[in-house]
Design brief:
This protein is of the alpha+beta class. The chain has nine helices and six strands, in the order H-H-H-H-H-H-H-E-E-E-E-E-E-H-H. The termini are far apart.
Length: 261
């Protein structure tokens, strides 16, 4: 285990560390970054601090970022919500711009030029246009999206797709990515939701075979059952699935055979 003497850290940037942490460089990087950000009273919110560290270290070094986002949606919690808030900011302004903004903010804070505004205040001020759809963090809650499609053949090689998109539960303005797969191609759209219910008309060159809402898991939303990887917990909740101990298999096999007959 490692420990920090707060007075020494604050005054002299000195850490008292157990040498075993040197065998875990990943943990050491977490510690150093958290210590640097904790020096600022602007990062006093635990969830926002942990969410920012998750984005800067865990997410940016993840080998499969799409899977990381999906697992974060599954786990939920305040830390996950904060991570997704920073992710949406970085996704809107660009990762390099996000990192540069953090560096600039910390430099200004060191020179005591930030007054009382937080890093999020700084981002909203510098990137107002890009972040106008993003609500304040306290209103950044999971949404649930449902879609329904009606398809009409307009001409020999033209199909009109009427796509009904609905937000249930909590509502906020969103830009919703959807993928439409046909036999010949995959096409991506970014649909703007300003109301709970929206209807979009899209023209396609061939018959749609599959429509996916947010297939890259870039929205802070409730996942559908089919989007959650199959594991023991999810199987327990699926209708028609029977889970039983291996040693009782003969008994249940006899029961299954009885009803099959």
């Amino acid at each position: 285990k490692w420990g920090i003497i707060k007075d020494l850290t604050f005054c002299y940037n000195i850490f008292l560390l157990n040498e075993k942490i040197m065998d875990r460089p990943y943990s050491l990087v977490h510690l150093l970054l958290k210590s640097r950000l904790l020096k600022s009273h602007k990062f006093s919110d635990d969830s926002l601090l942990e969410g920012l560290i998750t984005y800067l270290i865990d997410y940016r070094t993840a080998p499969d970022k799409k899977e990381f986002r999906r697992n974060t949606l599954i786990s939920g919690g305040e830390k996950s919500r904060a991570f997704f808030y920073y992710f949406k900011i970085a996704d809107a302004i660009g990762e390099s711009q996000f990192i540069s903004a953090l560096k600039n903010y910390l430099e200004q804070e060191f020179l005591e030029e930030t007054d009382s505004f937080t890093f999020l205040d700084y981002l909203q001020r510098e990137y107002f246009t890009e972040l106008q759809f993003l609500p304040p963090f306290e209103n950044f809650k999971k949404v649930r999206l449902k879609g329904k499609a009606q398809i009409y053949k307009y001409h020999e090689d033209t199909y009109l797709l009427y796509f009904f998109l609905v937000q249930s539960g909590h509502f906020r303005k969103l830009k919703v990515p959807i993928w439409i797969r046909t036999q010949n191609y995959k096409k991506e759209f970014l649909l703007t939701m300003s109301n709970r219910k929206e209807i979009f008309q899209l023209a396609l060159n061939s018959m749609p075979e599959e429509i996916l809402i947010d297939p890259e898991f870039k929205l802070w939303r409730e996942l559908e059952f089919e989007e959650i990887p199959v594991n023991f917990t999810s199987l327990e909740k699926k209708p028609g699935i029977l889970i039983y101990p291996k040693e009782k298999y003969p008994l249940y096999r006899h029961l299954i055979n009885f009803f099959e007959d």
